[in-house]
Amino acid sequence: MGGWVEYLAASAAFLGAHVIPAMPRIRGWLVAHLGRRAYLAGFSLLSVMLLAWLIRAAGQAPYVALWDAGNGGRWLINLAMPLAILSGCLARGLSGLVLAFAIWAGAHLLVNGDLAHAGLFGGMLAFALTGLARSGLPSQFRPTVPRLGLALLIWAGFLHLHPLVIGASPLPF
Predict the structure, then answer these.
(1) DSSP assignment letter at 63
(2) Are residues 158 and 170 in the same domain?
(3) How far is it, in rounded angstroms, from Cα 93 to Cα 82?
């Protein structure tokens, strides 16, 4: 499988994995049968695996240019990603993670001007903004040394692994 078929399949799987368990009866049944921790661990693992598949499928879809962000877009990513990671690490509750995804998706949407990536990051941005509309912006941040250290490690890891996993360096030089 490849091309647009795989991209659409990965998109549908990712969306389904987030919409179906959000239904109160289904989520309640899953939590009751698996336990809250096992449900959250399984849901998180499945989400990461499906997101990785979706990103890979977007990269393998036929390239259809929509716009060119130029080299300036890479500067945007390098400014936005530390902010996204900090919001995810320092905010209290899931709203920080949702805000981090919104920043990540918005910055990547501006930089990746092809059809598949516009669909991927535009969809992620819409999904994250919907979550923020439901939960609101983070109301509290907890900047501790361990959390700041974790944010720094995550940022360095993403920066280092991006060329290996995604196939493109986010650095502007």
Answers:
(1) P
(2) yes
(3) 19
What whole-number distance in Å separates Cα of residue 30 and Cα of residue 36?
A: 8
- What pLDDT, in 10s, does the model give residues 8-31? 999 999 999 988 888 889 999 999
Claim to verify: residue 103 and residue 142 sit in the same structural domain? yes
Secondary structure class of 18 (helix, strand, coil): helix
Element (H, E) at 53: helix 36-60
Question: How is residue 87 written in tokens?
Answer: 């919001």
Q: How many domains does the chain have?
A: 2
Alpha helices (runs of H) in 61-93, residue ranges in sequence order: 72-90
Range of the domain at 9: 1-62
Query: How many CB atoms lie under 10 A from the CB of residue 8?
Result: 13
